[in-house]
Amino acid sequence: ALCCKGPSPARPEYDLVCIGLTGSGKTSLLSKLCSESPENVLSTTGFSIKAVPFQNAILNVKELGGADNIQKYWSCYYQGSQGVIFVLDSASSEDDLEAARNELHSALQHPQLCTLPFLILANHQDKPAARSVQEIKKYFELEPLARGKRWILQPRSLDDMDALKDSFSQLINLLEEKDHDAVRM
């Protein structure tokens, strides 16, 4: 007779919002995590939702398009989010970096997001013009702005899948901590 211990325990699911300017690599990163073919990746206009499976959790990621005409609607999609993924192009122009900085500051201060854990991915680290994490931390003024908040800033490129998964594992840890805090109250 087949014997088993019953169904495996359900993995917790977390609803996340993923934001960043057009070209930062949001779609490519999420597609890579979902083992989708890179040939089929098209820049997101509007929004898309992906269930990204991990060993200890499932992340339901609502990716919002980064075009100027869509950014003004981002806040319409924040409700119900339990965490934030912000992707920036660390090799972008000064103007684009300034725009990304303004959007991140806006997100960190938004009433529906300000208490949530943030994973900030400094993408395109494989490009020669990429800024280091220290440069980005200083330029984005993360230390004073995000004081008291739970956030992670990680350098990333699509070439290093293990490091990308590790970044998301760290975010899952922050989400689990928030769950445990809610249970204790």
From TrEMBL:
**Any keyword Nucleotide-binding?**
yes
Give the record's keywords alphabetically: GTP-binding, Nucleotide-binding
A Pfam family the protein falls into? Arf
InterPro entries in the cross-refs: ARL15 (IPR042292), P-loop_NTPase (IPR027417), Small_GTPase_ARF/SAR (IPR006689)
Where, by residue number, does the polypeptide cross the bilayer? none
The record's PANTHER family line, in alphabetical order, gives: ADP-RIBOSYLATION FACTOR-LIKE PROTEIN 15
| UniProt-recorded name of the protein | ADP-ribosylation factor-like protein 15
Q: Which organism is it from?
A: Saguinus oedipus (Cotton-top tamarin)
